[in-house]
Amino acid sequence: MTELRELYPDIDPYAHGWLDVGDGQEIYWETSGNPDGKPALFVHGGPGGGTTGDQRRFFDPAAYRIVLFDQRGCGQSRPHVADGASLDTNTTDHLIADIEALRTHLDIERWLVFGGSWGSTLALAYAQRHPERVTELVLRGIFLLRRSEIDWYYNGAAGNIFPENWQRFLAPVPESERDGDLVAAYHRLLFSSDEEAATRAAIAWSTWEGATSTLLPQPDRVAESAEPRFARAFARIENHYFTHGGFLDEGQLLTNIGAMQDIPGVIVQGRYDIVCPATSAWELHQAWPASTLVIVDNAGHAAAEPGTTHALIEATDRFRS
Fold it and tell me: What CATH topology corresponds to 15-146+248-319?
């Protein structure tokens, strides 16, 4: 059997800062690895998830100039949604423009773009808007942000696999609203003037994802997703995007795939991904001949699962030269 690859050793950034992108927004960015290496951008999930140090470790630090950034309203970007930042100027188009502003700020001509879950959504949208700026794509846990995908995860179907967690997700929602659109019901709760009720709803929303993202239970992951400040930003930003269909036309990322047909890429997908089922990865691969699809048979949604980590590192190593 092939020995599974593990993350590269932990490293610290050699530069970081905040970039003013307009609308009163400053996005946090950092660079690590080799300053003269091949540029690679890590696009975090959520939306609203933020960056972590382990995300640097999917790349060979001797080969890559690794760029991480926090999307608007979350992580170390300013202002923070948990502190009351408005979401009026937080859309997919704004995030694509922020990525371009960061690329220009760092004087990068082209870069590899790596993204999982919502990060795969934003990476695809960016690559289709700016294909000349993308050398390769490494994508994981594909989310095409179609209504069917949102309904699968937030309107009951996935609850058949995790019934005990689904009951906790339903708990903040009035019984009279549980048979309707739960994304809409949560929107009212998360943006309520009752901050205590909004925080309870945010924790329920965030821990639903934390509890269902791995093949086997990981209580520490659930506990992290329940931290109130993180949950308030994560749940509000996610719900804002899903309420508006990701600010994308239905099926747009497949319809526009021709714009990035010549960009090579690797798609890594957990077979038992409940958050973003494998059918989306399969459809993307079928529409994008330049892609390689790797199905990890013993994994769910999370990048940290051993087989998924192995496949992602194999992909970045493949493209490092």
Answer: Rossmann fold (3.40.50)
